[in-house]
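Re: your question from the hallway

Yes, I did run it. Sequences:
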Amino acid sequence: MENMNWSDLSFGYMKTDYNVRCYYRDGQWGELEICSSDIVNIHMAATCLHYGQESFEGLKVFKGKDGKARVFRMDENAKRMQSSSRGIRMPELPVEKFEEAVRTVVKLNKRFIPPYESGASLYVRPLMLGLGAQVGVKPATEYLFMIFVTPVGPYFKGGFKPSDVCIMREYDRAAPCGTGTIKVGGNYAASLVAGERAHSQGYAAVLYLDPREKKYLDECGPANFFAIRGNSYITPQSNSILPSITNKSLMQLAESMGMTVERRPVPVEELATFDEAAECGTAAVIAPIGRIDDLDENKSYVFSADGKPGPVCEKLYTRLRAIQYGDEPDTFGWVTVLD
Ligand SMILES: *Cc1c(COP(=O)(O)O)cnc(C)c1O
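Structure:
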């Protein structure tokens, strides 16, 4: 890995040395297995393939100046995966087992953790699949939980810069009482058409509205939404939003910086009153929004006309990254140093 150009890596897949797997059979989870193949051999009638009985997670490991690898809030990912399991009738993986799997797979692929200076990180992707041969619609009897890792480059290659998003009312990411609050592949499949349409028109993402009334802001395809107004951090509350761990952390940070945090339904028109707007998630931490175009109403909301992110977004971004890389003391207890 000596002559690897870590900073040039994209958010893509690179084969690493090992992945870890754990099977659920006869009503219980088995032992962790270490595997060097990146192929999964499953029955063609598995429930994950036909009926979408599948969930996933995403988290990152960062190498610090001190050479130590740190993982960010993996207990939160473990708990969220349990919530996804409950949502689509899969067995819950114990938090300890999830954490053991993360530690094991990171240790086995140590040479793929990008160095501190690169601004890159090791992306950790846990997933759970319903297995077994079944044609009737019912939960599987066997499951596979696995984690693979792959190094990913810094999200902002040309610096921390805003991008534009759009509102399109003819698409929903998730139903009002559906699977929006859990991390399942089906939500992503449902967002591909709108996402491609947005990209082809030059937008980074779609900002979805609440699917019941189309009156309130929900979130972007793979990221939560938040805005800054004066001293307030405002983020939508809805029953079709995925609870982002980044958003949760930013809310805590904002509060610790003396800001007021408002988590509530946010009417679309309120966009006109915000000083800053952004997407947030593991991939970018914060992706500032320059402009939101409401394509149905022919309206634009501008948050950055000069191509620069707002000062509060910049501050939150810098602080959270500093905690993740171990540059700043972790007063919240978010980081686990791995050996
Ligand atoms: C994963 C995900 C996010 C971001 O969550 P983080 O825990 O911050 O990475 C936001 N929205 C959706 C729909 C997601 O699937």
